[in-house]
């Protein structure tokens, strides 16, 4: 039992060696510390904390290396996978981050098995973390399909317009997934003394408008996360964007000093590599 406990807390390189049934080559990244915003608790929002990565990759070396760097799996594969996932969006769970980093590494055909340990260094008296092991043979690695939606911005008058359903009918010919973004309502907005509180209020006002739009046509479904949006695009669903989560979780946030709904929609279209962006007002035609 003592040896099992010792192995449980051993470095991933020792665990890899102990659990391999054959001699394998490995590359590793040790004690790679990044300062990021991550966590599910409110106290972890709006602030950064240190997280530590330890990663070991069992690799498949080709015959005849000839000291050619292009023939081996580079250490950059590990750090690039980490950088890419940290830049993609703010995450709540270390488990999610570890899973995505592992998948990013295993996307390289030279990677056979990967051990990923991630620890929070500032949340307690010790390191709090998670470790996962993923084998390429047991993980389905697929090239992600790039979807380029049509993003449509509707001002308040267009949301309330009598021709909304007819306009949505025309979007069936767009030949691409459709995501709707809404403008502020004409109603007077609540005002807060603190900028952070005001940003929340303004974003929630847009989300209220999103629900107003969805209530007008059953084809429109309010969505708030990247996962939901990507799933909806693949299903051919007309999505109405509720912006709070994606905006607040973004690593490269838009200007939130006095939220301009149309400018926010343009930022969103760029974030999702939109094929096209349309502006609808009460008097505008497609």
Structural class: alpha/beta
What's the average pLDDT? 86
Shape type: elongated
**How are the strands ordered across the major sheet?**
7-8-6-5-9
Count every beta strand, where a strand is a DSSP E run of 2 or more residues: 9
Summed up, the helix count is 10
Q: Tell me about the biggest sheet?
A: 5 strands, parallel
Fraction in beta strands: 15-25%
Give the SSE string: HHEEHHEEEHHEHEHEHHE
Write structural notes for this entry.
The longest helix has 22 residues, at 195-216. A hairpin with a 7-residue loop joins β3 and β4 (128-135). Strands 7-8-6-5-9 form a five-stranded parallel β-sheet, with helices on both faces. Strands 1-2-3-4 form a four-stranded antiparallel β-sheet, sandwiched between helices. α3 (75-88) crosses α4. The chain is of the alpha/beta class and 286 residues long. The mean pLDDT is 86. Helix content is 36%, strand content 22%.
Features:
286 residues; alpha/beta; five-stranded parallel β-sheet; four-stranded antiparallel β-sheet; 10 helices; 9 strands
A few lines on this structure:
By secondary structure, this protein is of the alpha/beta class.
Outline the secondary-structure elements.
Layout: H1 2-8, H2 12-19, E1 25-36, E2 49-59, H3 75-88, H4 94-106, E3 111-120, E4 128-135, E5 150-154, H5 156-160, H6 164-170, E6 178-182, H7 195-216, E7 220-223, H8 226-235, E8 238-241, H9 244-249, H10 261-271, E9 276-280
Parallel strand pairs: 5-6, 5-9, 6-8, 7-8
Antiparallel strand pairs: 1-2, 2-3, 3-4
Helix pairs in contact: 3-4
């Amino acid at each position: 039992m003592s040896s099992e406990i010792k192995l449980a807390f051993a470095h991933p390189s020792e665990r890899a060696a102990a659990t391999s049934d054959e001699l394998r080559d490995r590359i590793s990244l040790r004690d790679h510390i990044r300062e990021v915003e991550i966590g599910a608790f409110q106290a972890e929002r709006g602030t950064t904390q240190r997280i530590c990565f330890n990663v070991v990759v069992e690799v498949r070396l080709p015959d005849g290396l000839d000291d050619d760097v292009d023939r081996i799996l580079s250490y950059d594969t590990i750090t690039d996978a980490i950088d890419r996932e940290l830049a993609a969006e703010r995450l709540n769970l270390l488990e999610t981050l570890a899973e995505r980093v592992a998948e990013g590494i295993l996307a390289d055909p030279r990677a056979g098995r990967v051990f990923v340990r991630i620890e929070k260094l500032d949340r307690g008296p010790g390191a709090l973390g998670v470790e996962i092991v993923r084998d390429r043979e047991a993980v389905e690695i697929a090239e992600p399909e790039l979807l380029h939606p049509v993003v449509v911005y509707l001002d308040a008058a267009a949301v309330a317009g009598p021709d909304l359903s007819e306009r949505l009918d025309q979007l069936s010919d767009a030949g691409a997934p459709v995501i709707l973004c809404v403008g502020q309502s004409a109603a007077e907005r609540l005002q807060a003394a603190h900028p952070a509180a005001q940003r929340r209020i303004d974003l929630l006002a847009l989300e209220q408008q999103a629900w107003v739009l969805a209530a007008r046509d059953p084809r429109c479904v309010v969505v708030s996360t990247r996962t939901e949006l990507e799933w909806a695009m693949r299903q051919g669903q007309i999505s109405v964007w509720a912006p709070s989560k994606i905006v607040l979780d973004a690593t490269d946030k838009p200007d939130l000093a006095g939220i301009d709904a149309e400018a926010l929609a343009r930022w969103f279209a760029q974030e999702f590599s939109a094929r096209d962006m349309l502006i609808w007002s009460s008097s505008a035609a497609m």
